[in-house]
UniProtKB/TrEMBL annotation:
Keywords: Carbohydrate metabolism, Hydrolase, Metal-binding
Family: Belongs to the metallo-dependent hydrolases superfamily. NagA family.
A GO molecular-function descriptor: N-acetylglucosamine-6-phosphate deacetylase activity
The protein's name: N-acetylglucosamine-6-phosphate deacetylase
Organism for this UniProt entry: Candidatus Enterococcus ikei
Length: 381
């Protein structure tokens, strides 16, 4: 099957280009300047005129909990499917099913439901699982349920891997907890991205964690100590280490625009990734929700616990992309942060770029960054 996408603007490091793209089955076959009309006589099965709108690689959300009134810890396949659909609607073609701190039984149930949905997704593709917890520090719990927070347990983690296999792609931990350095070593041996957050780690403890194999920071600046000039902490350790990448919740609430620009200036587009960290209120709106064992109230799109603690977000990936650009991040870099860098971190070889040989997972956006066309595996959805 051949698909022709005409008159679309793509972003490259050298600037914007108006191109035509030929897709064969699920793969980008050729890209040519639109003015050349290279494919004018090519027989195709379907075509799309992009009318000069912006075409980007499908974005990847490595940290999302829910959407459309569904939490992926609900224990149902429907909850995961609803998130999959909402992800695609908002410019995301792949995601990690993300847990919150819970009982082992609840986590294993989520893993089982994820395995049932993979290959049958109604929207964005599941690229794996992100375990956010349960080995997190109660001092920086945020919206994590303290009932289930616990110290690292290698036997428990082995049980999780027995059920999930290679689906576990990322695990967020607090490295200062007893036994966590051994856990980090265990996870690296399984090629898992080890991330740090909900942590009270000192600068020195963070550096030791990096030496053991941690390489990523979950929702940087959130649920961790702020930078102090005599206690630089986890954030400073991450920022000065070129090998450490960071997540950013760019919703205008979790991070000041100056911090977003600072992260980009220090880390560059290949060191920062956009995430939603969204709860089930994404796509629904204001109201009362139960999330992670807590009552959460969403007002004006901001989710908080009763004590005022931020509880995830309601931002979507296309909104995060728009906000990044509005905050001063160059468009090409913002696209990399939303689409390319996550695939590099996850080791995906054919996602995240509009280049020949890459998967045809593509999103067409208007000037307001609203999604107007979705192409997944070469097919319009």
């Amino acid at each position: 099957m051949k698909t022709l996408i005409q008159n679309v603007t793509i972003s490259k490091e050298t600037g914007l280009e108006l191109v035509d793209i030929l897709i064969e089955n699920e793969t980008i076959l050729a890209i040519e300047a639109a003015e050349n009309k290279t494919f004018s006589n090519t027989a195709v099965d379907q075509s799309l005129d992009g009318q000069s709108q912006l075409l980007i690689p499908g974005m990847i959300d490595v940290h999302i909990h829910g959407a459309n009134n569904f939490d992926m810890m609900d224990g149902t396949t429907k909850s995961i499917q609803e998130v999959s659909k909402k992800c695609l609607e908002t410019g995301c073609t792949g995601f990690l099913v993300t847990s919150v701190t819970s009982s082992l039984d609840a986590l294993l149930t989520m893993i089982d439901r994820t395995k049932e949905v993979i290959g049958q997704e109604e929207g964005a593709k599941i690229l794996g699982i992100h375990l956010e917890g349960p080995y997190l520090n109660v001092k920086r719990k945020g919206m994590q349920d303290p009932t289930y927070l616990r110290n690292p347990d290698l036997k428990e983690m082995a049980t999780i891997f027995d059920r999930a296999g290679e689906l576990i792609k990322m695990v967020t931990v607090a490295p200062e907890l007893p036994g966590c350095l051994e856990l980090i070593t265990y996870l690296k041996e399984k090629n898992v991205v080890v991330a740090i957050a909900h942590s009270d780690a000192t600068y020195e403890e963070a550096q030791i964690a990096f030496q053991h194999g941690a390489t990523h920071i979950t929702h940087c600046f959130n649920a961790m100590p702020p930078i102090h000039h005599r206690a630089p902490g986890l954030v400073t350790a991450a920022l000065e280490n070129d090998d450490i990448s960071v997540q950013a919740i760019v919703d205008g609430i979790h991070l000041h625009p100056g911090i977003v620009r600072l992260l980009h200036k220090i880390k560059g587009a290949y060191g920062v990734i956009l995430i939603t960290d969204a709860l089930q209120a994404m796509g629904v709106g204001d109201g009362a929700y139960e999330f992670g064992g807590h009552q959460v109230k969403v007002e004006n799109g901001v989710a908080r616990l009763k004590d005022g603690t931020l509880a995830s977000s309601t931002v979507t990936m296309n909104e995060a992309l728009r906000l990044s650009v509005e905050m001063g991040i160059p468009l090409d870099d913002a696209i990399k942060m939303g689409a390319t860098t996550p695939t590099v971190i996850l080791g995906e070889k054919k996602l995240g770029k509009i280049e020949v040989g890459y998967d045809a997972d593509l999103i067409l956006l208007d000037k307001e960054f609203s999604v107007i066309e979705k192409i997944l595996k070469g097919h319009r959805k």
